[in-house]
Amino acid sequence: ARASLDDLRDSVLAGVAEVNEVLQDQTLTPEVRSQAVTDYMTLFMTIQGARALTGMDLEVLEAEVRDIGEIVPAVAGAAKVLDPWLALHRGDPLGALDAARQIPDPSATILVRAAALEALDRQEEAVELYLLAAHDRPYEPSGVWAALRVVDLAGESALMSDAGTAMAARADRIPEWIDRMITQPSTFMELRIESEATSFAADERAMVRIRLRNMAPIPLSVGADKVISSRLIVTPSLDADIRGFLGTPQPEVLDFDRRLRLVPREAIVATVPADVGYTGYLLDLNARLTVRERWRLLQSFQIGRHGAMVSGPMALTAETGAVVRRSLPEARFTPEEFALRLDRDDPVTLPRTLTGMRAHFLGPDFENVAIAGPGINTMSDALIRRYDRASALERALMLVTLPHGRQCRAFGPFDDHVRLSFTDSNVDEAGGLVATVLMLTRVYDGADPTLEVAARSANPDTRAFAGLIRDRLELGAYIYALVGPHANLLAGPTPGAPRRAAVDEP
């Protein structure tokens, strides 16, 4: 009681200080001043009522009641309701009852009258008043205190009412499995995540199978805010013994909101890519490493106290076993070997070569990789030759996979060539796919001729995208073509690690 009263006092004092500051303003309208006085009265009576109820700090109570008339006269009249409590705590229960009769509102003195009657050993009358207070204010501290007085004086049965008995009977008819749903969600649903294989090649897409099943004996709704939550997040994690991995994998959100409900034993089963977006990009960068990975699935996720993702209420978690992602041999090629493969690759093997090039020039050892010399020139010439004879789809793949010149200077000549070839040809390819990817990955200047050509395109999507890129560049917004070689720059800003511009200029 002492600690609670001190905490309440500190809270009230902070509120009183704010109200006092408002009342000092002489320009207040009458309506605003009246509301401030009401707020002051509420705060004052809150702390004084707690002191009167507990019988603590009564000297402070009396002193502040005496002084209140000079500060806010309107509060002085309201404070009269405390007089019966002061009489009771002085050992005068009859005086407390007399003082209570002077208060026009009987409900304001119901507790002190009950306490006075209890002090006079008139327990039946006291219990009757305590019951009125407990039923009238069941969720307030005073109502709870009144209910406890009833239990002490007349036993728990005295608190029972016809309505309460009827409610208890209805509660008893609720099946036990429904009561267990809150603390044991596995009793009404099943959540599982399984990897399709125990190992994957570096250029394979890791797939996981997710199952969400209704285990209850009745149909249950499915959705983000329903009984069976469809909001899921897949969090990848790497084994701690991996050395030199570049970047930090990020979770991905899934929504299984594809059914209104599930009948008993019915399930939603989906096979989805495990590493999409940024995490997939990171794994490509680290393709020269053999990686052991697992995935954790959280349902109805939320941010926990320490900033980590945790499952929400009435939700489950699941986890796969460890999966091995094998290294990509192409990630260890030399520039001359890359040039040879670019000249000989067919459409099936080209993605492996491109992924290997990205891992070679942007992977864990990117700061030590040579970006100039005869071998780099040979590779650059091979890139240009392959791009010129490639299909539209292969060109788009090269543009989205290979580093751009601001990530690695070795690709500056390739960037210049693809921009020049686009502006010279002035021809839309594959419905604007190549034009869109080119602007996204290789244009970092609002005055680039590429944007002018794209703005005159017959394809409306190409024209619209050119406008978006130009607008973002004029605003100084962050775009992919400005990203430097550090992988974490693509993950977005994090505390203590804001976004940075490119490190390598073309």
Largest sheet: 6 strands, mixed
Approximate helicity band: 40-55%
Whole-number average pLDDT? 86
Low-confidence stretches: 493-506
| First-residue to last-residue Cα separation | 70 Å
| Helix count, DSSP H or I runs of 4 or more residues | 20
The class by helix and strand makeup works out as alpha+beta
Task: Give Rg in angstroms.
Answer: 36 Å
| Number of beta strands | 14
Mass-distribution shape: elongated
Approximately what portion of the residues adopt beta-strand conformation? 5-15%
Walk me through this protein's architecture.
There is one protein chain. The chain has helices spanning 2-23, 30-54, 58-71, 73-78, 83-89, 93-101, 110-119, 123-136, 141-154, 162-172, 176-180, 278-285, 335-344, 350-362, 374-389, 392-401, 412-425, 433-442, 449-455, 460-475; strands spanning 189-195, 199-200, 207-214, 220-223, 228-229, 231-238, 252-255, 261-262, 267-273, 291-299, 302-303, 309-310, 317-319, 323-325. With 506 residues, it is α+β, with helices and mostly antiparallel strands. α7 packs antiparallel against α8, α8 runs antiparallel to α9 (141-154) and α14 packs parallel to α16 (392-401). The longest helix has 25 residues, at 30-54.
